[in-house]
Write a structure and sequence with these properties.
- A hairpin with a 5-residue loop joins strand 1 and strand 2.
- The two termini are 15 Å apart.
- The relative contact order is 0.19.
- This protein has a five-stranded antiparallel β-sheet with strand order 1-2-3-4-5.
- 14% of the residues lie in helices and 42% in strands.
- The radius of gyration is 12 Å and the shape is globular.
- The longest helix has 7 residues.
- By secondary structure, the chain is mainly beta.
Length: 88
């Protein structure tokens, strides 16, 4: 299964900025706030290329854009995905 298919199974979609940054994004509710989770490669500029690549995971308020949780580094995308409920 390709990485984009894996991420889609977990509810993530690809998003990008006009300056060329890319990330996976998923809308969530976090501590009562409408929020979104973003996942980028360790350099925070592009998408990870494999489940073995280190990633940065952030949770941001959907309305204000403020961070709701300090960005966290995971040794691999797989190690982050292992913290989530498996896709059904």
């Amino acid at each position: 299964m390709e990485l984009d298919q894996i991420m889609e199974a977990y509810g993530f979609k690809i998003s990008s900025s006009c300056s060329g940054f890319e990330w996976y994004v998923k809308r969530v509710e976090y501590k009562g706030n409408d929020a979104f989770v973003t996942i980028t490669a360790d350099d925070e500029l592009h998408l990870p290329e494999s489940v073995d690549e280190p990633v940065i995971v952030s949770i941001t308020d959907h309305d204000s854009g403020n961070e709701l949780k300090t960005p966290q580094r995971f040794e691999s995308l797989k190690s982050y995905l292992d913290t989530l409920n498996p896709p059904s």
